[in-house]
Amino acid sequence: MNRRQFVAGAASALVLNKCLNLSPARADEVSPEVQKAIDKGIDWLLKQQQRDGHWESPGGQYPPVMTSLAGLALLMEGSTLREGKHADRIRKAVDWLIDHTRPNGLIGNPNNPIEMQRYMYGHGYGLLFLASVYGEEEDQDRRKKLEDLLTKSVDFCGKAQTSIGGWGYVSAADGNNFDEGSVTITQMQALRAARNAGIVVPKSVIDKARDYLEKSTQSDGQVGYRIGRRAITPGLTSAGISCMFSSGEYGNPIVLKWLNYCKANITPMGGGARQGHDEYTQYYWAQALYILGETGFMKLFPKADAKDNLTWSAYRKPTFEHLVKSQSSDGSWTGGGNWSGVGGPVYVTSLYLAILQLDKGVLPIYQR
Question: Cα separation of 167 and 162, whole Å?
């Protein structure tokens, strides 16, 4: 276990293991067939990185988002800023994001026409990625620079939060206090990663966000698009579970409600018709099930029938088989969900690589 895993993830891992009595993942759980798909996917992703270090969607869209998601896929392979076969690529991505962070801590460029209407997504995923690499930076000047950036970015996140605790596509000030679930979840997971890395995150910001998600929950257990408005898929609910698990909220009654909703409404990959936003849905649902492992669900629902148990292995088998079979010959994946058309194959490939590499247990934010 490297220093990033031990120092940044130790606290959250201890809390989780104490609550659910889970065992950590082992890298040797990744089968040769799955590793081959991972290698092909990463090779394709590396070819898409621009010379200055960033990735982007078709038409040059969402560069901070795509750079961060692709960078996370490389980190989950096991490379870091200072070691591993992709260290130089990770460092280039980090440098690009640092260079594209505003003095106020916003990761991205709100004046760029291709970012200005959705810049909080880039900020959230950028904060998640940079917080995940922070512990490996050994150059003291660069480490201090990165620490200052993360501190300002967390501060910006707090200031961008709406009065009722959510986040929108842009800051509360720029968006007339508009907020919605997917951006809110992106910020919450990023803030947890920053806290894992030792950056101070105000408890009040997290408490307001948690309250926002609870108030967004419909009577059937679905996390709505906004407070009082239903979502169109279970994706936000699965993302909410993963986000709350990352924050140490395992037995919270609202999380149990979300789990029951997702259990009844998420179709396993390869096991039925595709759902809207399904790459996003599966990305977060896989994280939640990985954390539950083989026994976590029954510990949360001790009165449930054993046949209703949700396990990582039962999800992993059909999902991994589907991902291996559906991978393009060049190593990429293309999606059918609503967001995949905007994000393109960089988006889909990055998310699927994250799912396939959960068993490696590298990043604290995804660990058991």
Answer: 6
CA angle (36, 37, 41) in 5-degree steps: 120
Helices in 115-266 by DSSP H: which ranges? 119-134, 140-160, 181-196, 203-216, 235-246, 253-265
Residue carrying the six token digits 């709350």? 244
Note the pTM of the prediction, 2 decimals: 0.91
Which residues lie across from 107 on neighbouring strands? 101
Residue with tokens 């969607």: 57
Amino acid at 113: P
**Measured distance CA(91)–CA(222) in Å, rounded:** 39
- Cβ atoms of 161 and 209 within 8 Å: the answer is yes
Asked if residue 368 lies in contact with residue 23, where contact means CB atoms within 8 angstroms, the answer is yes
* Residue 362 phi, psi (nearest 5): -85, -50
Sign of the CA dihedral 82, 84, 89, 90? negative
- The answer to whether 122 and 110 have CB atoms below 8 angstroms apart is no
Asked if 107 and 97 count as a contact pair (C-beta separation under 8 A), the reply is yes
Looking at this protein, which amino acid is placed at residue 58? P
Place of tokens 């394709």: 44
Hey, how many other C-beta atoms are within 10 angstroms of the C-beta on 331? 20
What are the structural domains, with CATH classification, of the chain?
Answer: 3-366 (1.50.10.20)
Q: Give pLDDT tens digits for 53-96.
A: 999 999 899 999 999 999 999 999 999 998 999 999 999 999 99
Q: How many CB atoms within 10 Å of residue 295?
A: 14
* DSSP-derived 3-state class of residue 101: strand
Half-sphere exposure of 231 (CA within 13 A, CB side): 30
